[in-house]
Specification:
This protein is an alpha+beta fold. It has 10 helices and 8 strands. The protein folds into 2 domains: about 100 residues, Arc Repressor Mutant, subunit A (Orthogonal Bundle); about 160 residues, no CATH class. The longest helix has about 55 residues.
Length: about 300
Amino acid sequence: MNRSILGYQIGQYKLDLITKTLSIKSTNTNMTISERGFLFLCELAKASPEFVTKEYLHKVLWPDRHVSDWALARIVSDTRLLLADNGGQQELIKTARGIGYSLCHCTPLYENPERTVKIQTSTSFSFKKILMGVGGISFFIVAAISIYGAYSQFRLITAVDNIEKYQTYSFKAFQAQSKRRDELVKQLEKRLNVKRDRQFEKFFVHYYPQMNEDEKFVFSQIRGITESGLYLNNLAVFETLEKNREIYTIIPKTKALANHLQFWLNKYRSVFLKRQDMSLLYVGVEDGVPYPSNVDQQIKNWLKKYK
């Protein structure tokens, strides 16, 4: 029986063909994506892992007019920023120069209406057999306790595993942003004949009014990474920690991590979003909530032991 494709899982993201949305799958956090960006991902997802030619993408994205390759390149760049995908490593969207693009780590999400019925029937039948047996109730209680314990451990491992993934995605976004940050510093220093003598945040805010079109383009890329790759992954880590607060006990430095992320998120909402001259958002020692050293290694060590 043919099953309908409801969407695609792309790394940590879900592309929903029904609601026409892109979200972080584990937290169901919707992301802002343009109509053409959504169509671009749909075409790559349908063809994955094969390449989709530039000519075909031009026809799908701009059916009624001719545009330059720069317009398509901008769609690709914006989508990579949204997915925190490094244009150098190209872990999700790969480029075949002169040919087109392909999508990696893409899995179709199928409709499966029979699964629920089968599970319910099987579970009902198993319960009846237990209750009909001698001592069925006692056996059921012991089994339920055992199952609950196993489920709790599984839920905890899944949560910590997700945190590690979000942290990895966030770090990759930070690396991509750092390259653009350094690029913008060099552009400003060369054109304005200045030397950076203050923190990156303050340096860009100070010279924002003097930026030309090319510099503001790089600035917008840096800001886009803060708004997508960093914000969404930092939010996902913080929410996962708060929903599974026992992690604070089993991995001690995660509490300091939560404090650091909460301060970052508060600064993002109360300061960053209100200022168009900000592209970077750093929180550190001067704020009293530095990023806890070795917390990433603590998370990896715990997963290695219990996963």
